[in-house]
Amino acid sequence: MKQSQTPVRVSAGQQVTFTDAVSQPPQPVEGFRQSWLDGVVLAENMRLDTLMREYARYRNGYFSLDDKAAALRISSVFPLQDDARFFSALTRTLPIIAERRFS
């Protein structure tokens, strides 16, 4: 692995994207990346598949999406600890049907 010759200082509230060859300059952290601290996921014109990946990080279970639904975009604040409210908000806002399956 290559090592950078110049250290990059990343302060609280910043994020850096990097590879083994290059790092981008520090940027402010995206709002949705910190919203979990308040027990919510913040979506701002976010693709549904991205929202579901973020939500799945805090929940047990498996979530799958139809390809057409995955590309839908949504903006809202969603609770992390209340599945019923989360999926109710999605189905009221987007042209989707949420199905729950038990094994």
Question: What features would you describe in this structure?
Answer:
By secondary structure, the chain is of the alpha+beta class. The chain has helices at 31-34, 48-56, 67-70, 83-93, and strands at residues 14-15, 27-28, 40-47, 73-79. The strands form two sheets. It has a two-stranded antiparallel sheet with strand order 1-2. A two-stranded antiparallel ribbon has the order 3-4. The longest helix is centred in the C-terminal third of the chain and has 11 residues, at 83-93.
Instruction: Kindly estimate the percentage of residues that lie in beta strands according to DSSP.
Output: 15-25%
Number-wise, the strands total 4
What distance lies between the first and last C-alpha atoms, to the nearest angstrom? 44 Å
Number of helices: 4
- Secondary-structure-based class equals alpha+beta
Estimate percent helicity: 25-40%
Describe the biggest sheet?
A: 2 strands, antiparallel
Unreliable residue runs: none
Q: State the shape.
A: elongated
Radius of gyration: 17 Å
* Multimer state: single chain
How are helices and strands ordered from N to C? EEHEHHEH
> What does the average pLDDT come to?
82
Spatial ordering of strands, largest sheet: 1-2
SSE topology:
Elements: E1 14-15, E2 27-28, H1 31-34, E3 40-47, H2 48-56, H3 67-70, E4 73-79, H4 83-93
Antiparallel strand pairs: 1-2, 3-4
Question: What would you say about this model in short?
Answer:
The chain has 103 residues and is an alpha+beta fold. The protein has helices spanning 31-34, 48-56, 67-70, 83-93, and strands at residues 14-15, 27-28, 40-47, 73-79.
